[in-house]
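Reminder to self: tokens first, then the designed residues, so the page reads top to bottom the way the pipeline ran.
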């Protein structure tokens, strides 16, 4: 009876989604999951158990979508048929939507030999849905301060995750970033398999120790020491009091080379070293690639296949996408918390002080952006002080963003809450062949992307 109810729930959800899509052409929606979930309360659990090869979850403050996309590429190449919620809807209704959108009219999904559910899950939502998802592999990327109004403290979330994976009825594998002390602690709570990943490169720039805000203390209250610091609080940490230090990871990135528009490194898995090169800049992309590789390895996928898949990756939509309009390049950089903002700042910083940066900075304060925008003060915007920036501020909180930039020594040429108007004004000062960088929070990214997609279509320009 329950199975029938589940199928009816899925069909209703799917129909609701189709009706909505007829009316609004853009984007994915969580409506199917919302409708299905209301009809059958235990739906997520029974659907997850139906996945022949289990469920994989990806969670953490930064890098969920990118890591999920990278892993999906590897899974496809390995012959898996992965059901994903890659569109970024990472709450329970988004997960159910992924199922609802893939069933046929009888409420069944196509049976394939290798079927896996691959879900990026919001950090707080993971603790709520873990019991239903019962993942075969659960990957933990990092924990930074994000959307303070919604999550509370990082430590609180870390404790909830420890309880979650320590539950008696779960024996799955965890894949953890050992460079984050809070994530490393998770391995103490599980009796299942553990796959570790992290960066092994002492030549990388050590960021300012004052940036360490999210994991300053060990569980017993001693201050953590860092021998190498890669980003925010991620690095080679140790606690002299507990005599615990970050272990050498099984999956690591070594000899990292970061350029303005690409990155390369040696991916080392249990002693096997292979070169990875991709057209995406930024150390956080290296972390995302590592997480995807480590998760694939935990799923027993062949190392050579992992490497060849990762060498093919392209920038996923909105997170670092480039558009070409009237011979001007427009690059979108999703930025939603202090750590992400600091990394974005490194990406837009030119090689020479004489190079002008054209910047459109958009700040929204919707639920998905985080309603509390005070995080903009935790990022090191001052680092850009000596550069020449043509700045336009936009979005719902355009004035707040303008004030932040003003305090860092940059007065915007224009403050304009309307995003489309601001885009035009920002582009006015970009010469042909030049580039406009767009910093955008989540909903702002969706808005600017939709404008650019429409204009690209009209101009019959390809998205590069
Ligand atoms: Zn300690």
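Designed residues (464 positions):
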């Amino acid at each position: 009876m329950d199975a029938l109810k589940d199928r009816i729930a899925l069909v209703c959800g799917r129909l609701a989604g189709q009706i909505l899509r007829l009316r609004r052409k853009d984007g994915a929606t969580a409506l199917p999951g919302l409708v299905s979930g209301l009809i059958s309360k235990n739906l997520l659990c029974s659907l997850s158990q139906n996945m022949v090869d289990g469920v994989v979850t990806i969670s953490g403050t930064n890098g969920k979508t990118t890591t999920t996309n990278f892993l999906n590429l590897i899974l496809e190449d390995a012959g898996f048929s992965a059901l994903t919620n890659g569109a970024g809807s990472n709450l329970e209704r988004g997960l159910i939507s992924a199922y609802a959108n893939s069933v046929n009219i009888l409420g069944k999904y196509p049976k394939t030999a290798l079927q896996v559910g691959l879900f990026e899950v919001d950090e707080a939502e993971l603790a709520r849905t873990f019991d239903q998802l019962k993942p075969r592999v659960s990957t933990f990327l990092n924990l930074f301060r994000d959307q303070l109004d919604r999550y509370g403290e990082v430590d609180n979330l870390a404790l909830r995750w420890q309880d979650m994976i320590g539950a008696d009825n779960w024996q799955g594998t965890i894949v953890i970033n050992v460079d984050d002390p809070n994530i490393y602690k998770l391995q103490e709570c599980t009796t299942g398999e553990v796959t570790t990943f992290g960066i092994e490169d002492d030549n990388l720039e050590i960021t300012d120790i004052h940036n360490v805000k999210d994991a300053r203390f060990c569980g017993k209250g001693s201050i953590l020491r860092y021998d190498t610091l890669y980003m925010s609080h991620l690095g080679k940490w140790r606690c002299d009091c507990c005599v615990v230090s970050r272990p050498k990871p099984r999956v690591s990135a070594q000899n990292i080379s970061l350029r303005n528009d690409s990155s390369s490194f040696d991916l080392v898995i249990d002693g096997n070293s292979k070169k990875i090169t991709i057209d995406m800049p930024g150390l956080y992309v290296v972390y995302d690639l590592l997480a995807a590789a480590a998760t694939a390895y935990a799923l027993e996928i062949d190392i050579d296949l992992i490497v060849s898949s990762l060498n093919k990756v392209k920038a996923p939509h909105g997170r670092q996408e480039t558009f070409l309009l009237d011979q001007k390049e427009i690059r979108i950089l999703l930025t939603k918390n202090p750590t992400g903002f600091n990394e974005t700042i490194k990406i837009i910083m030119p090689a020479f002080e004489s190079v002008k940066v054209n910047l459109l900075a958009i700040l929204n304060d919707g639920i998905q952006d985080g309603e509390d925008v005070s995080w903009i003060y935790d990022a090191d915007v001052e680092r850009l002080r000596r550069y020449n920036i043509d700045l336009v501020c936009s979005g719902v909180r355009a004035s707040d963003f303008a004030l932040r930039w003003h305090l860092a020594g940059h007065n915007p040429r224009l403050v304009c809450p309307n995003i489309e108007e601001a885009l035009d004004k920002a582009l006015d000062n970009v010469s042909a062949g030049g580039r406009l960088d767009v910093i955008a929070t989540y909903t702002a990214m969706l808005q600017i992307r939709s404008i650019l997609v429409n204009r690209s279509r009209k101009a019959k320009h390809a998205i590069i």
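Residues 218, 220, 222, 239, 241-242 surround zinc ion (CB under 6 Å).
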